[in-house]
Amino acid sequence: MTYAPETPEIAIVGGGIVGLVLAAGLTRRGVQVKLFEQARNFREIGAGIGFTRNTVNCMEKISPGVVRALRSGGSVNVSLDQTDPKSYLRYINGYGLQREDDPMYQKPLLRLDAGIKGWETVRRDQFLDDLVKEIPEGVIHLQKKLSMIVDEEDRDKVVLQFTDGTSVEADAVIATDGIKSTARKILLGADNPASYPQYSHKVAYRALIPMDKVIAAIGEYKTHKQHMHVGPNAHLIHYPVNTNTIGATVVISDPNNWPLDKPTTARGSRKDVLEALANWSLPVRNLVNLFPEELDQWALFDLAEYPVPKYNKGRVCLVGDAAHASSPHHGAGASFGVEDVLCLCTMIPEQTGQFTRELNLSKGDALRAAFETYDKMRRTRTQWLVNSSRRVCDLFQQPDWADPAKRVKAESCFEEVKDRSFQIWHFDSGKMEEDTIRDYKERVGASRKIKKMNGVSCKATLDTSSEPEWLFSA
Amino acid sequence: MTYAPETPEIAIVGGGIVGLVLAAGLTRRGVQVKLFEQARNFREIGAGIGFTRNTVNCMEKISPGVVRALRSGGSVNVSLDQTDPKSYLRYINGYGLQREDDPMYQKPLLRLDAGIKGWETVRRDQFLDDLVKEIPEGVIHLQKKLSMIVDEEDRDKVVLQFTDGTSVEADAVIATDGIKSTARKILLGADNPASYPQYSHKVAYRALIPMDKVIAAIGEYKTHKQHMHVGPNAHLIHYPVNTNTIGATVVISDPNNWPLDKPTTARGSRKDVLEALANWSLPVRNLVNLFPEELDQWALFDLAEYPVPKYNKGRVCLVGDAAHASSPHHGAGASFGVEDVLCLCTMIPEQTGQFTRELNLSKGDALRAAFETYDKMRRTRTQWLVNSSRRVCDLFQQPDWADPAKRVKAESCFEEVKDRSFQIWHFDSGKMEEDTIRDYKERVGASRKIKKMNGVSCKATLDTSSEPEWLFSA
Questions:
Q1: Fewer CB under 10 Å: which end of chain A, C or N?
Q2: Which of residues 39-68 of B touch A (CB under 8 A)?
Q3: Is the ipTM of this complex over 0.90?
């Protein structure tokens, strides 16, 4: 394959879901891509993953191959009634409110309408495997662990150095290397607390369970539909991940600290989970009884306490969890990474190439400006998610659920849960694309004027100020 | 004046802003209204009050007299730039971030667009005085303190008893007797914690200050515009309440308890406030220095911890603070009471009269059903406000503001502040009116069918269940 001279060469660091979706989107658009993954093989932690319709729309725009991978991975539409083509996310009381005449009863609290085929869920490992198949040969480079990025203004290319002593050059670097991002630490510095993930004081236990066993444990109705069970200091979500398997996750509050040097996965046991859920409803305990006796305990870290102040620097930008790792309580972390990718694919390579050709901008300068636009477009929404995820977990896990006198208060949280969920699900990706192109054009237009005024090469490092236009003093 | 036989007679308990707005709306619609206020005179606590455009729209629909009272009370549109006809609410950093070259500098954080003439503010006492003038003679009865409501199913009328031994009858009672509502205690019972307001662990200090002094203290720009100064464990808001006066409120966190039997107002001093704001920006301290040396300290109570489970019972309903007293941090407590009033005026007397005439429903039954609809229409939004007001106060007063390493995190709250404010300001009152009429018709239509089936008088106490239609067990 030959490339036009203005086509950028992009290095992607990290081969998780978001990095592979980005590789699929950029290669489809004719970009020269090299993806570097530190591991020997691709692997995904966690059990299932779900995407709402707005995210699948973004995937379609990025590359039909991504949707193909999602669906060939055996994804299912969840939360369907036989009589209703819509998907729902149902919240129910997981604690107390037992009825003597029906030990399986749980009080319904909220039903969120996700629309027609509004939720597609899949096993994480299957989705990842099928995503890899969508990436052209020669793009993926395994066992390449990043050690340094050298981005010097007077050099034509950025240099990536790896721990094996090798290095490569690219016009820009997009880091999708996750919550423990090495690229983030390189950009922010080792002494910046935002370089390191922060413990959210929640631990998760995940399991994949055969559907027939789940039916016996919690009943047919709940088994086939996505349900969130809420209660004091814990919550449990479950949904089908394919036609014969249920993915279930229990999240439990943990007042203790989790040192950063301790692995984020520890050995746990079903017994621990059952103890934490001792007084919960029968279906919840039944379901947890189907978890393996020994299971992993995942400490949930995020970037809420020390957010990344800026997602880009020069010709490097952070995408997905590397930029805005969130706790998983909205089930939207990967979705927001997919939105990030669509934002970048809106500019690269069509817009960047046009500016390179028509404005005689260097590829590096065109990409620098694109990353500025990316930061501006994505920052507010993604930071909101990080905060909102912690917030809804607090609402799901209100200690008030355990106090009958506080139940009216506890239940009043769901208007907020609805608003927050709809803010995620009703994302207008078409508007983001329009805003992205407009901002990028204005930004490069402005850089062009400055260039003319100064008569020197433009670095396109414009508008990094976060002061609004109504800045004032007394 | 003579009334058609189907015109209901309504007793209003409590003569605050919401009670008077209700009296104005109902009398304008030809309802026979008696308003009972326990005090010897009308008086309003607090300094200024502001209404956004959506609330003024509701007032216009309730009665042009309410808007007339607002404006004759000297209301002003605040937060105007000379070049911009819109009103804004501006959030600025009140703590730290001093600039050596400009001691009056404060970092701007958020500017919320309230639209053209989007905020009208007024002195509370002036608004109340002018509202009273809009109420027809003979409606208002002062020095009438409610002691009991007797609402017996087989009696044609509800009886209100007062502490002076007198009593009156009415077709229904609407209680607007505020956060310490007697009617609420009668409905819920003295042993229900929701009968009593709950301390929100915030105290407020309010002052009215001549504008020329404020200009000298904080500068001309800030003086004429509404500003919220945020910082650790406190916040301060100020805005013009007429052409020569500024209303300012400081809210300070208080970890202590405030016993319910202690008066909610205590003596405080400017010195206390200055101590709490010791390290704040110069303009904040300058402004507080203009407060009187001795001033009232208001303990802020609300109904957040123990919300009222239902706003109506039989022929009695709770409106405004009596139903859903909120802390004042959204500045929307009275506004939500005004929305409540519009909801009731949508049904009374036109719809209630029509059902009384055409369906041969008793006035009491028509009003019972109307109050059910009122509860359904208003409950979710008003409970949301009570929670949201506490939430935004927590965001304004994040301890993180004091820690330079946490400033990026602290500032990330404003997307949520914006969403919450717009949820208040962008209220579609026309949709509420439509939904109210539809629900009321369906409710009475259903009651009519039941009536036909049973062949007995309908009590119209339908659909009190809060279980959603997707109720299920296993």
A1: N
A2: none
A3: no
